[in-house]
Structure formats: structure tokens, C-alpha cells
Amino acid sequence: MHASFGLIALLSSAAGALCATVPYNRSLTLNAATLVTPEVVHTFPNGTNMENLAVRASGQILCTIITGPDLFQVDPIVDSPATLIHSFTGYETLFGIAEVQPDQFYVLAGNASAATLTSVPGSWSAFHVDMTSFDSEGTATIDKVADFPDALLLNGMGLLNQAEGLVYVADPFAGAISILNVNTGDHYVAINNSLTVPAAPFTTPLGVNGVHVFQQPDGPLYVYFSNTAQSLLARMPINATGVPTGDAEVVASGIIADDFTFDSAGNVLQAVIGSDEIVKINPATGTITVLAGSPNNTELRSVSAAQFGRLSNDSTTLFVTLNGGNLGAGGPVVPGAVKMLELGTTLA
What we know:
Blueprint lengths: L2 E2 L34 E5 L6 E6 L5 E5 L4 E5 L7 E6 L5 E9 L2 E7 L1 E2 L4 E2 L4 E7 L1 H6 L3 E8 L8 E5 L4 E6 L4 E6 L5 E5 L16 E8 L5 E7 L4 E6 L11 E5 L3 E6 L5 E5 L4 E5 L6 E6 L9 E6 L8 E6 L14 E6 L6
Antiparallel strand pairs: 1-10, 2-27, 3-4, 4-5, 5-6, 7-8, 8-11, 9-10, 11-12, 13-14, 14-15, 15-16, 17-18, 18-19, 19-20, 21-22, 22-23, 23-24, 25-26, 26-27
Keywords: Signal
Organism: Lentinula guzmanii
Protein name: Quinoprotein amine dehydrogenase beta chain-like protein
């Protein structure tokens, strides 16, 4: 059975059409001279829609494609070539990716068509990608971890508990966050509340999107999640097994948000797909600072995810994926790409 997405509902790129109607709750406005200029790591062919990325300890970047079931690797340098790691036969698209143990990655695959704007509920699966064999043998070892027969669309993925092999998986259509044990394949819905479901201000069914865990030293453990339809970033206190220990709260609103990451101080570096920007959000104050991009240009067109480099020379470099507005979001369309932002002192 196929379920129609609608013109603004297929994937996170669709939110780009909505950016002009949602005001920011900005407490600080930066002038153009302050903004960071993105540099191109790799540009994919026209029509390629990128979704997410993960950075290896080697510094190399793994990135997922929505318009094909393909996992690529690029080097963390300007004008890097892209190497195909694996194409997932029997699937049409890849979404979230997360590293659990060193060089052991997990990706979400399913059947969703950009051409027909349809999804196949129940077609979603999680796969293990062993990159150590790719380095030694030239071929990654791929194993299926679990099928999700009740899933409508699996999108974001974030590490929850490394020792136990637990990850969070977000289903934006169902408005729910599941916990997956990558060692056993067991999974269950752990979080489903008023801030995870798709709701106003938009009618898109993309609710909870990015999902990641963060804890300040000696502070509470939180799961943070973005909600594209509700245009917000929220967080919820949890225990080590991912079970909520308190109510969810809104950290920032007025941002058509996709995936995100954290800096060392606990600020959220958020990809704002609706306005083609990367912003820094202070969870303590809710202050939103624009670091790069603009609704008025295409340099970060439909930016969808962000991760910091892991080498000594790129620890303040933010790598981002762009889906390029390829899926009917309105406005200009550019090729999907991986870009990098040297943030430096803007993180202070």
C-alpha cells in the first residue's frame, strides 16, 4: 500500500517552500560580514538529493542519498571526489546514519519515490555498515539489523547508549521516536508526545526529524529532537536506557528544522532547511545566532544535516549536507552537495 506525501511532504527538502511564512524568534541579528562562507567538499549530479552524514575517526565523511539507496564517502577537503561505499539493492532511499562502535555505522533504508511522491509504509529497515572491511578489502560488510513493519518513514538516527548498542530512530510521519538495539534488532516506540507529532503551523506530515543525545558534565541526560512541521527544537530528560524521566520542553521555535549536532559547550548547531541557514542555539537562553547561509542565496540550499570534523585540524569545521531543493520545495534548485564551514571563533 502506498501513501501519498503531497508536494510539501515527501522529504525534509519540502520544508524549503515554507520559509517565507515563518518568522524567527531571533534575539541577535548578525550582519553579512559576520557570516561564514561555505566551501564545497563535493557536488553531486543534478537531481541528487542528499540527506545525512557521519564523520569517521579518519576524518572521512559518509553521506546518504534520498534519491537513490546509495552510501558515499568523501574526504574532508575542498573538491573531494565521492566514492560509492554501497548501494542497497531492493531499496529506493537512505536516510539517517549513526556510528555506534568505532567505524561501525548504521543506516536507515526504505522505499520512497521522489518521482511519484509516495512512500511504502513498512518497507523500512536498519543496516549495519562495517567500514573496517572497506579500508582493508575495498568492500564494506553490510548486514541487516532489523525490519520496521509498522514504520511510515524512518528519518533521523542518533546514538543513545554505546555500551548497550542503543540508538534512537525518528519516524516523522508517525510522530514517534523508537529505540533500536543494534546488537539484537529489538526495537520499540519510546517517545510519542505533543512535540514529536506533525502539527501546526504546517500541514506537512513531517513531525520529529533529527534526534540526538547530549549531556553536560554532571548535568542531566537529554534527548534533543527537531520537529519540522511544528518548526521547533525540543528536548526531554531521559535515563541511560532512553526512557523519559520528565516532560519535553521547547528549546527554540520559529525554525523549520532538520538535523543538527552539538558543539563542545552544548550549543546546538541546527540545519534550518526552511531558510537555508545554519544557526547556533543556546539551550539555556533560547538565543538563535545565524552562522551561515541565507534565504536570499543558494549556498546552503535546503541544508539538511551537520556534523563536526574529527581531526585535529578540522575540529571547528562543520560539514553539512544539502539536498538542493530537488523535491518540489519551490524556489531555485541546485545540485545536492557536501559543504564545510570553518566556524572558528564563531563557536565562542
